[in-house]
Design a protein that fits this description.
- By secondary structure, the protein is of the alpha/beta class.
- It has a domain at 93-174: 3-Layer(aba) Sandwich (Rossmann fold), CATH 3.40.50.300.
- It is globular and about 50 Å long.
- The chain starts with 9 loop residues before the first strand and ends with a helix.
- α5 crosses α6 and α6 runs parallel beside α7 (189-206).
- Mean pLDDT is 87; it is low at 257-264.
- It has helices spanning 50-57, 80-87, 105-110, 114-127, 131-143, 159-172, 189-206, 217-223, 246-253, 257-262, and strands spanning 10-21, 24-35, 39-43, 65-70, 73-74, 90-93, 177-181, 209-214, 226-231, 234-239.
Length: 264
């Protein structure tokens, strides 16, 4: 299905899709379409619904209302095998990166295809990889600037280097879309800017859909042509950053009286 506004096929589409956890509404029923190849930043305070929205997009959470389409498929209509197939084309970089510290760097990158290789194939890739696999992974590490770390233990890497391992793992998956949940929250501003530039550049180069949640508004405004602002589980704006003024961002992040009391 295409995005009616752009005519470009949609990578993701939500129709009145929302998610509740008991009495808590994490994301209100939302209509949203993201075209293939788009680069979108999700911004908003903690608890605004950004992670819940990402989990609906990568089909790791089901909507409690409405419907979600990912890469042209209605998630609710998929068989378990079909769901695994769709997920295999969506790479996710979680906030905590999801790396195994005791593994070598190349092994962490190789896990990007475990979901498509089956148990025995995945185990073989992690224990006795063919030379072609190591060559391919070395090439990806070269793209992200840490090719010399191929055989290093991941725990020995700096935070910024580990983030680049997570990016290489995502690329090794050969995805159509990358979803990144606050991937730069634990590094200094210079490294954060470098990683955002790397991800947006790679997405543009390969025509990948990129959806990234960010707390850093400067990075979001500088590198993404579309910003979706969330607050209290509701979309507050969905615009090109050039069309947004500072008052809209101030309103997005202002604390209400109840929130100030909760913060002590």
């Amino acid at each position: 299905m295409s995005d009616p506004a752009s005519g470009t096929p949609a990578a993701f589409r939500l129709e009145a899709a929302g998610r509740r956890y008991g009495a808590t509404e994490a994301l209100a029923p939302t209509d949203l379409s993201i075209s293939r190849g788009e680069r979108v930043a999700l911004v908003g305070p903690s608890g605004s619904g950004k992670t819940t929205l990402l989990r609906l997009l990568n089909a790791t959470a089901d909507p409690t209302s409405g419907s979600v389409e990912a890469l042209g498929s209605d998630i609710a209509a998929l068989s378990p095998a079909g769901l695994r197939a769709v997920r295999s084309h969506i790479a996710t970089i979680p906030q905590q990166l999801g790396l195994v510290p005791d593994m070598r760097v190349w092994q962490n990158v190789a896990t990007g295809r475990v979901g498509t290789r089956g148990f025995l194939g995945g185990l073989r890739d992690l224990l006795l990889p063919p030379k072609a696999t190591l060559v391919e992974i070395h090439g990806l590490l070269d793209r992200v600037g840490i090719e010399e770390k191929l055989f290093a233990r991941t725990a020995q890497l700096s935070g910024g280097q580990q983030q680049r391992v997570a990016v290489a793992r995502a690329l090794y998956q050969k995805p159509e879309a990358i979803l990144a949940d606050e991937p730069v929250s634990s590094v200094d501003p210079a490294r954060a800017a470098s990683l955002v530039e790397l991800l947006t550049g790679l997405a543009a180069e390969h025509g990948l859909t990129l959806v990234m949640s960010l707390h850093n508004l400067e990075l979001a405004r500088a590198h993404f042509p579309r910003l979706i602002g969330l607050r209290g589980g509701r979309v507050q704006f969905d615009q090109n950053p050039a069309k947004l003024d500072d008052t809209m961002f101030e309103k997005l992040y202002e604390l209400g009286e109840e929130e100030m009391l909760q913060d002590g």
